[in-house]
């Protein structure tokens, strides 16, 4: 990358970091400079501000539906980078209007882990492949490697979490096909959504307690308990999001991944990351085209053993129902043969998700292109 420090002898590039940001900390640990030739400052150093410098603000906030948006006057900045470890919510023009009003600056760029309804975002203004939950999971969790056993008690782990439309459909279909006893299932009602705030949306397999981490057995049955809530005594010392359920994986052949956003989203969470990291075969329930998006990130899936054309189905109910059919198809196969056939695919996925450096370098490339070069060029005109 071309050095930036030669633009003038007196002009500096200052990055004003308003919050602790995991990816910046991880990059520092891995000796990757995400802002080359820049001086990073925090707001307590604002007495050093000069309008002769190129000033870049990086500000972390999750602009979700109904959030109380910040009101910051960053009119003095050459650009504001909105960082979000979750998703941005579109359409793009609405999102752009929202952050412009919040930051009092229309010269913004975005780094986030995905989007909902922002398919029309300009590529030079938004990097939406942060994959924050891939980064945190691989940083906080250890992989427990073991030889593939000849027998496992269950076919699928179906860790649904809070009830949502696609998760309820999955449960109903499993009960309809009478295969619930071949699965480990957990779902709780949603205390924040009247549509699913009913005890009939609480479902837990009788045998879950045999395999779940003892520290979380009671917690995973509490409606409304977030997966980021710290839990004392967990095997990895973090929370449900940053914990791989080793005993459940050891006793179930396959996983159901029912992602957070069931429609119009590119956002992947730890739900997907855990399977990639643990060399799991999974059936995916989420937005149309999300498997294709996972392929864009470099991962491989399982089209040689199941029909993954469900990823292309427009109607969500039909798409998720087709996913359940693939669960049934897998149950008819010999899992040892399946895993032998997919061995290289699963090993590839594990290597890729563990490559934190590659993900950080992509962020660095975007920052260099969309922020540093663009605004340095504007400043020189």
For this entry, give a set of tags:
single chain, 381 residues, 2 domains, 6-stranded parallel sheet, 5-stranded mixed sheet, 33% helix, disordered N terminus
* Tally of DSSP β-strands: 13
Helix and strand pattern = EHEEEEHEEEHEHEEHHEHEHHHHH
The CATH architecture classification of the largest domain is: 3-Layer(aba) Sandwich
> How many separate domains make up the residues?
2
Oligomer: single chain
Gyration radius, rounded: 23 Å
Low-pLDDT stretches:
1-9
Which overall shape is indicated by the principal axes computed on the Cα atoms? elongated
Q: Given the helix and strand composition, which structural class is it?
A: alpha/beta
Question: Helical segment tally?
Answer: 12
Question: Which strand-content bin applies to the residues?
Answer: 15-25%
Distance between the termini: 21 Å
Largest sheet: 6 strands, parallel
């Amino acid at each position: 990358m071309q050095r930036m420090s030669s633009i003038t002898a007196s002009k500096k590039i200052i990055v004003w970091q308003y919050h602790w940001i995991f990816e910046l900390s991880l990059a520092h640990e891995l000796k990757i400079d995400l802002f080359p030739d820049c001086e990073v400052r925090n707001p307590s150093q604002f007495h050093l501000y000069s309008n002769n410098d190129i000033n870049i603000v990086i500000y972390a906030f999750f602009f979700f539906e109904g959030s109380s948006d910040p009101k910051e006057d960053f009119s003095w900045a050459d650009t504001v980078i909105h960082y979000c470890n979750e998703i941005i919510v579109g359409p793009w023009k609405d999102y752009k209007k929202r952050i412009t009003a919040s930051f009092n600056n229309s010269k913004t760029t975005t780094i986030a882990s995905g989007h909902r309804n922002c398919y029309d975002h300009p590529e030079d203004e938004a990097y939406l492949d942060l994959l924050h939950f891939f980064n945190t999971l691989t940083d906080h969790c250890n992989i427990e490697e073991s030889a593939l056993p000849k027998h496992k008690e269950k076919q699928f782990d179906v860790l649904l979490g809070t009830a949502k439309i696609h998760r309820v459909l999955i449960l109903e279909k499993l009960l309809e096909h009478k295969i619930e006893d071949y699965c480990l299932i957990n779902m709780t009602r949603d205390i924040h959504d009247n549509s699913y705030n009913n005890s009939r949306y609480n479902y837990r397999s009788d045998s879950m307690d045999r395999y779940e981490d003892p520290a979380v057995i009671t917690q995973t049955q509490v409606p409304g308990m977030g997966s980021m809530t710290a839990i004392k005594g967990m095997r990895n010392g973090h929370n449900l999001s940053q914990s791989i359920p080793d005993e459940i994986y050891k006793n179930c052949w396959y996983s159901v991944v029912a992602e957070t956003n069931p429609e119009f989203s590119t956002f992947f969470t730890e739900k997907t990351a855990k399977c990639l990291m643990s060399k799991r075969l999974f059936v995916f329930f989420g937005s149309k085209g999300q498997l294709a998006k996972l392929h864009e990130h470099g991962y491989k899936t399982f089209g040689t053993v199941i029909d993954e054309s469900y990823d292309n189905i427009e109607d969500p109910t039909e798409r998720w129902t087709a996913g359940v059919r693939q669960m049934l198809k897998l149950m008819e196969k010999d899992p040892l043969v399946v895993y032998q056939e997919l061995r290289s695919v699963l090993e590839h996925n594990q290597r890729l998700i563990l490559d934190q450096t590659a993900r950080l370098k992509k962020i660095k490339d975007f920052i260099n292109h969309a922020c540093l070069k663009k605004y340095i060029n504007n400043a020189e005109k």
